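Hi, here's the filled form for the chain we discussed.

Project: internal
Contact: R.S.
Residues: 329
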Amino acid sequence: MKRLKVIIPVAGSGTRLRPHTLTHPKVLLKVSGKPILGFIMDKVKTLPAEEVIFVVGNFSDQIKTYVRKHFNKVKSRFVYQEKQLGLGHAIYKAKNFIKQGDYVLILLGDTILDANLKLIVKSKRSLIGVKEVGNPSNFGIAIVANGRVKRLIEKPTRPISNLAIVGLYFIKESTILMDILENNIESGLKTKNEFQLTDGLQKLIQNGYNIEAFNIKKWFDCGNPENLLLTNQYLLKKTNIKRQIAGSVIINPVYIGKNTKIKNSIVGPYVSIGDKCNIINSIIKNSIINEHTSIEKSTLTDSIIGSNVIIKSGHKKLNIGDFSYIVNE
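And the returned structure, exactly as it came back:
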């Protein structure tokens, strides 16, 4: 195998996940007790990659600290994207570190996929991951014939395919793609007011290079609260950790962090609770509770709660950020 480089764009601001992304990068939001990026890197660290290039923006220091602490054996490089001008622009920022003969694996930092990356990087051809969806106009789509990608379109108004591009790309013609992206940026070629990776890949196809599509079974784009909770559900079911706590009812699957105290409560199913939390006289279902949070005499469902939060009495569905204090008198 030639040199493998992995590019992970993590510069997005995550506006749909506010208030949580006002204090943390989207890729470090937790599901099943671990940051989204952690699940991606658990797979990446098993690959024969020469280097992992993170394209960072907001909260870059948090991302650098997390990667260096938890994945210190992976050779990492951090490239700064000053303005978020689209995925094509983000990938282009890594151009100076991609050399002739490098193969590139691109993984979106906010997307969890059930895919065999070891098998993908052994492919003889370039690949794009796709999945059938019911709302293709919300995604970049691929038009495929006999396994080969014929055309790529970014969020079409009238889609002629239901194969969404899921955010996994293995590109063998990496330097050619980088040159195309550079030309697109210099000429101001935008789609939906952004420099798109799909436009670069489409030109690669038009220039005669073959890209094959492969189907992804499970795909979770953690871009909004609903999908974050769905991802949490999937990962909890997959890990299937069984917990029991005397004096409370635990309905598995759940994740309960270290030094967390639960008293006279019903927790689960599909609940993740961070470290050093206190849950007292409460009912919590299908929710994510971050560390150092206290919940008392409350019922929460379909909720995402930040860290260092205090909630007392009432409420059924909440989406609140760090250091919040909510009391129903």
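Let me know if anything looks off before we file it.
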